[in-house]
Amino acid sequence: MRWQLLQELTDEERRAVLSRARRQLFARGEILFHEGDPADTVHFVAEGRVMARRTTASGDSVAFRVIGPGRVLGDVAVVSADPRRSSTIVALEPTTTLVLSFAEFRALCAEHPGVQLLLATLLAARVKRLSNHLLEALFVPSDQRVVRRLLDLCEQYGNDGSGQVLIPLTQTDLAELAGATRPTVNRVLRALAAQGFVQLSRGRIVVVDPTRLAGRHAGTGL
């Protein structure tokens, strides 16, 4: 397991930190926490994947990110003046997290300054990613955004060493992640399926060859 926020620690130090964490199990569809909830814990995702959702001004819940093993949840709240959850986190599959209280996490940062530096680096990278997504929403055609999010999901789910990547998400999920309408996603996916890039079935998308799809996307813009 590559623990993103603990990579500066030695194996022994990493084991010592994680041994102090409390294990929590979540079923598929279970909510880890809600946007706006008071926050006092950091979750390290040990198994499974979760989806981060935010509420729009109109009251709709929109997905914006899939988070998998090795990543951390709650890192924004731990450095906030008003520690509240910035998003709702929903388990996409059976999920296990290792939980540290804010006090325990801050003690970890004090003991290992490299963790604090990594946290700042990760938060800066997140701001950059959000800025890039904003520019995409303003200037990149929706068809291209759909393919980009599909390729992002290939990186998230393509960890079994095979050529094909099974993405167990609906077209509605992909539409929300891409900031596109469901009819647009359906049209793009059907076009990709006709060209042999993807296979479609209920509640899942199979990308036949992510490398080939990435090359097609880079070469043609779609």
Structure notes:
It is a single chain. The chain is of the alpha+beta class and 222 residues long. The protein folds into 2 domains: 4-137, Sandwich (Jelly Rolls), CATH 2.60.120; 140-220, Arc Repressor Mutant, subunit A. Helix content is 44%, strand content 23%. It has 8 helices and 11 strands. The protein has helices at residues 11-19, 75-78, 102-111, 113-139, 142-157, 171-178, 182-194, 210-220, and strands at 22-26, 31-33, 41-47, 50-55, 61-67, 72-73, 88-91, 95-101, 165-167, 198-201, 204-207. It has a 4-stranded antiparallel β-sheet with strand order 1-8-3-6. It is globular, with a radius of gyration of 18 Å. It starts with 10 loop residues before the first helix and ends with a helix. The model has no long low-confidence stretch (mean pLDDT 89).
Descriptors:
single chain; 222 residues; alpha+beta; Jelly Rolls; Arc Repressor Mutant, subunit A; 4-stranded antiparallel sheet; 44% helix; globular
Lay out the secondary structure.
Layout: H1 11-19, E1 22-26, E2 31-33, E3 41-47, E4 50-55, E5 61-67, E6 72-73, H2 75-78, E7 88-91, E8 95-101, H3 102-111, H4 113-139, H5 142-157, E9 165-167, H6 171-178, H7 182-194, E10 198-201, E11 204-207, H8 210-220
Antiparallel strand pairs: 1-8, 2-7, 3-6, 3-8, 4-5, 4-7, 9-11, 10-11
